[in-house]
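During the no-cost extension, the postdoctoral fellow (Dr. R.K.) reprocessed legacy sequence entries with the updated structure-token encoder. One reprocessed record is reproduced below for audit purposes.
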Amino acid sequence: MSAYLYDAMSLPNPATDSPASTTGTSLASHTSHAKQLLELHPLKKGLRQTEQRKAVFEALMSNADHPSAVDVFMRVKNRMPTISLATVYNCLETLTENGLVRAVNHEREPSRFCANLQEHAHLFCSQCASVTDIPLHTHTPPEQVWKLPTGITITQQEVSFRGLCAKCASTQNA
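Re-encoded structure tokens follow.
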């Protein structure tokens, strides 16, 4: 359902599309479409769209760097000086529960948040601690990719890799 919101709304993917992609979609246009997505996506339990939720969502959609709640707070604080860290945490929880963003957890680190709702994996850089989206090029069901014990049903897959991002790998190989 929500994994295909980018396709349904014809949104560029902030993790894989450049701010001015070959389709002519600018970052400002992407952010505008993100606002439309947030306004059109119904929240559970009759929750309303608040200015704080919109600001947090826009901060996530503006960059594909998988920020922590504190990172989001610092971005939103510039535009909304009265927002609290607790409000940012609550907004992120609501956006996650409603399928508009994903929480990305790695070991015992603080949760980071991903605006890319397409099926993808994450590379956790062991040198600079960045998180990079890796598109999945196969639409093969996990049952055909992995050797699973009999009787198991996959309902969601989260694939992660540990290694060096392109920037760190290039400096190490230089």
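Residues 121-173 form a domain with the Dna Ligase; domain 1 fold (CATH 3.30.1490). Residues 1-31 have pLDDT under 50 and may be disordered. The remaining legacy entries will be reprocessed before the final report is submitted.
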